[in-house]
Amino acid sequence: MKPLFCIFVALVFLAACQPQTETNQVKSYFDLKGFIESQLRELEKRKPTVDKKMSLDGESESKQTNEINWAKELDLFIQADINKQAYQSSYETTQPAPKTNLYSLKKGENQPVQSLKVIFDDKTQMPSIIEVSLKEENKLYDSEKQLRLTCGMRPEGVWLIKTYEISGFQHLSLTDKKSFSIVGTIY
Asked: What are the residue ranges spanned by the domains of the chain?
């Protein structure tokens, strides 16, 4: 019993000595994950109506609903966060225009996020447009995705996503290329 207790105490001590978690990590780039998570909380609380248009290889569907699983709907934006430990120093930061930050993948780097562009609102300094380009390819799989969010002030004084767009294609080596798009307008 005594050796088991010593092992338990040692494990607790080692766990307490672990480096700080990612939540306390200094962000090198725009905190896309943090921004989207704050938007998710607002969207889940407000349950706005969404006009959603979806297309897969030319087949289209539209629906209007307020029953959206926002974490699932905006998951690609969270996955596109470039502040992950593996991405540190993989991106070059430029300002191609006032209030615009562009994070571009450096030559020789191999990450799925090719670029992240954030345009900030003049008055609030909040992101008004976010654009992400994703690309993955290997011998079995080829995929490109373009993500876009527009945000603005709601009449009730809350900064919130107005539209989101996800488009691109997926191609497995043994199948045809599948093009898709999703456009959501939030009311």
From this structure: 31-186
pLDDT tens-place string over residues 124-161: 999 999 999 999 998 898 999 999 999 999 998 999 99
Q: What is the pLDDT of residues 24-56, one digit of tens each?
A: 567 889 999 999 999 999 999 999 999 999 999
Q: Please state, in angstroms and rounded to a whole number, the distance separating the CA atoms of residues 117 and 103.
A: 6
* Neighbour order of strands in the sheet with 91-94: 59-65, 50-56, 178-186, 159-172, 141-153, 127-137, 113-120, 100-105, 91-94
Residue bearing tokens 């488009």:
167
List the one residue out of 110, 127, 109 whose CA is nearest residue 119: 127
The residue among 50, 25, 10 whose CA lies nearest residue 187 is: 50
Q: Which of 76, 77, 93, 84 is nearest to 35 (CA)?
A: 77
Pairing of strands 59-65, 178-186: unpaired
CB–CB of 131/151 below 8 Å? no
